[in-house]
Structures are given as structure tokens and as C-alpha cells.
Hints:
The chain is α/β, with parallel strands linked by helices. 42% of the residues lie in helices and 14% in strands. The chain has helices at residues 2-17, 22-32, 39-62, 73-88, 93-105, 114-127, 141-151, 153-163, 219-222, 241-248, 260-273, 314-317, 320-340, 360-369; strands spanning 169-173, 184-187, 190-193, 210-212, 231-235, 252-256, 278-280, 293-299, 341-351, 373-375, 396-397, 412-418. Strands 5, 6, 7, 8, 9, 10, 11 and 12 form an 8-stranded mixed sheet that branches. Helix 1 packs across helix 4 (73-88), helix 2 (22-32) packs across helix 3 (39-62) and helix 5 packs antiparallel against helix 6. The termini are far apart. The relative contact order is 0.10.
Amino acid sequence: MENRKDLIAIVNQFFDKKIVSIDELIDDYYAQNKTNLKRSECILVINSFLRYSCEYDQIIDQCTSKKISRSNLIIRNILRMALVELYILKRPEYAVIDSWVEICKQKKRTEPFASFINAILRKIIIEKDKIIISTQHKIPQWLWMSWKQDYGNDIANQITEASLLEPPLDLYCHKENDFDSQFIEIEKNIFRKSKAGFIENIRGFKEGKWWVQDVGASIPAKLFTNIENEEVLDLCSAPGGKAMQMISMGAKVTCVESSKSRIQLMLDNFNRLKFNPEIINKNIMTWASSKTYKNILLDAPCSATGTIRKHPDLIFLKNKHELSKYIKTQQALLEKAINLLSVNGQLIYCVCSMQKSEGLRQIENLLKKNKNIKRDPVQKTEFAQFEKYITKDGDIQTFPYMQNSGGMDGFFISRLYKEY
């Protein structure tokens, strides 16, 4: 029962703040509290809670005529957590109900709702086979509607269903490594395992033979014509996966990143891999470079809707009002990037978002305003393995339901060049 109290305390804190990532919140909780709850179990349960909360809300609302007010969000969270135990962890029904009813009775604020919790859970158990939840109600409506407007009803539903699945672990391996049989090579140098587990325990970690990188995130760097022994400017570089990939391809990489804490995370990985790129801790918009670059990668800040599989807290942390902020930042960064780009140089623009306003529309607007910038369409003859991701304009758009055996992150990628 104590573990249940820990779990409900964490999710209540998350919904109280809604500004801090769940990973940071879990870190803080373990730093400040003594608990017997295993961290791995905590992450599994909390991520499941976040993934399925919208769906569980529909189930709860169908089984009660009483509206649970926002001030009583703790009651809704208790019901959501109980449904995680019933549906995901498959725990005995009587044990789940009895435990949560008892927990309710122990707090003055929740004690009046103990019988209500008991009745709702029992009704859900009886009627669960009759309850039907449409795909569009499994995530916030603004998000599903944005995908519908961009891609149509069917693709919006496919994106939604795939975004709510637990992702596999992808590793980009730049040195020969003896992975165990749980890993399969899904592309050259990319090995996948269905369950993540403890990263540090995987063979080759200490030796710096690989780093964690989703197969979708590995595409942008591959689109450069040839970067072996060439300088590459990596803008908004953290967390550093693409920089590591480009270094392994033989590039001389300069990383520009404004966040000191994120740079420290990058350095931890660079040191483990024995990579030594130049790192510039500057705000890109105010950074004055003494030269231009032939190759630039801009992985712009975005809504990150393509990574909900890994970060289900994004379902609640992001909202439609934030999009305009990201769009303005992306526009400014694109303008800065083309000013840093040499004539005849290549710029790879990417976002781990599936919102057209952050991807395709940004490129269309950039090309209208800058006649010297042209799209360098990705050709099927260049990258046969990316054929199904290539759009009619020659950009790359991946969705979470693509890629066999576990899907991939959603990315928009465009390759551009400076004509004069």
C-alpha cells in the first residue's frame, strides 16, 4: 500500500505543476523521500498512467453520472491509477479496490469519496467489456484534431494508437559489439531491443561502443551529401545523438547549445565515447560566428509530438497555445542558420514533431522569403531504405506507426541548399 501512496503522490505533484517533466519529478521525489518502490516499477506505472489517462477518463465518465471537479483531481487520479493496476498490471480486482478504498479513508480530503471510489471501480469491472472508446478520445482533442487537419482521419488515428504504445530501445552502434540475442539489427548500425531495461548493463556501454538514438532520429545526419573530414555546424545540439552520429561518420563537428546542464549531459556521453567535438555554450540567436559553414544541421526546439511514445507526459505538458511560441523560435533559427550557411552549402532542418506548422509550413515560408534558398529533394534512388518516408516535395516525414517491430519517432526533415 505504501508504494501506491508514493505513486499517487508523484502524479498529484505532476498535475499540480504541469511544467516539470515527469523524469525530473521522479528524480526529485527519490531525492527527497525514502521509499521501497523500485525506480523501474515507478517509471513503468507512471508512464502507463500518463499514456492511458485520457482513455481512462472516458471509461470513468461513462460509469458515473457525477462530474469529478478539477478541485478533486486527486480522486480522478486515484481512479486512473486503479485502472492502470487492473488493465496494465493485471492485479487482482479485490486487492486493487480494497487498497484504494483504504487509502481514501486515511486522508481527510479523500475520506468522503471512499464509497464513491468503491462503487465506480466495481461498476467498471462489471461493464468493461461494454465500454467502447474511440481512438480520437485517447489523447487531448486539440492534438488529435491537429493531426486530422494535417493528414486526415485515418492517419490521425494511426498516429494516436502508435503514440500510446511503449517504445523499444534503439542503439546506434559505431564499433563492433557483441549484443545479446534480445537485440536485432533493424538498419545498418542500429540495434533494437523490445524492452529498455538498465542502459548501463548493456554490453559495450562502458567501452563507448554505442549510444541511445531512435531510428527516426538517425535519418537527418544521413542526408548530407558527404561530411567525411568536413566541418559540420550542429545547432541546438543537445542531447547530442546527431553530433555523435556525425562524428562517427568522420565529420569535424561544432556543437552550439545554450543550456549548460544539457551540455553536461552531452559531455558525459562524448567522454564515454571518446569523442571531442568543439562545444560552444551560446544562445544561437546572439552568437556571432567568424565564418560560414558548408554543412549545418538545425534540430529546432519543437512541440516534440513525435516522441510521445517515449515521453507520455508531453500529452499534458504541451498545448495548442505553445505552438505559436515554437513556430516563432523555429522561424528565427532558420533565418540565423541560412545566414551561417556558405554559398552552395547544405542545411538539414528537422523537428521531432508531426505538426505541419512546425515542419512543412516552415520550409514553405522560408523558401518564399529567401529566393537564394532552394529545397534539395531527397531522392528514392539515394536512399531506398527511406522510400516510404519521402514526401511528394522531397522532404522526409516519419510517423510512429512506421518501421516494423516497434515503430519509430515522428520526424519532419528537409534538406536545403544556398544557391547564392
